[in-house]
Amino acid sequence: MLAKKYRISQKQEFDKIFKNGKKASSQNFIIRFMKNGLENCRFSIIVSNKISGKATERNKIKRRVKAILSNNLSNFRENIDLVIIALAPCKKLDFSSVNDDMIKLLTKSKII
Questions:
Q1: pLDDT tens string 35-82
Q2: Which residues pair with 24 in a beta bridge?
Q3: Cβ neighbours of residue 42 under 8 Å, at least 6 residues apart?
Q4: Which of 45, 60, 78, 112 is the most exposed place for a label (fewest CB within 10 A)?
């Protein structure tokens, strides 16, 4: 689990990221990000009910993404706010495929 200082939780922060942030996407994820001016990166993961009606499946996707982020936290180039939106195809992937896709997406957007 990510520590509280690494989480985005306020609605105003989400609105600011969606309005002013940059966007990148892959087949399985959409990310929105922007510099935050803080001394650490902050994250939020969104998995919609449209992906799965079961909370266990949604939480499994969130756990996988959190593990990937925490493993690569030291590789981030700058301190950013990052919102990750999971898309439907990601629920069929195993951990290594999710990891590869997330790393490619973060590299493509020059975050890591």
A1: 998 999 999 999 999 999 999 999 999 999 999 999 998 999 899 999
A2: 31
A3: 5, 6, 7, 8, 36, 80, 81, 82
A4: 78
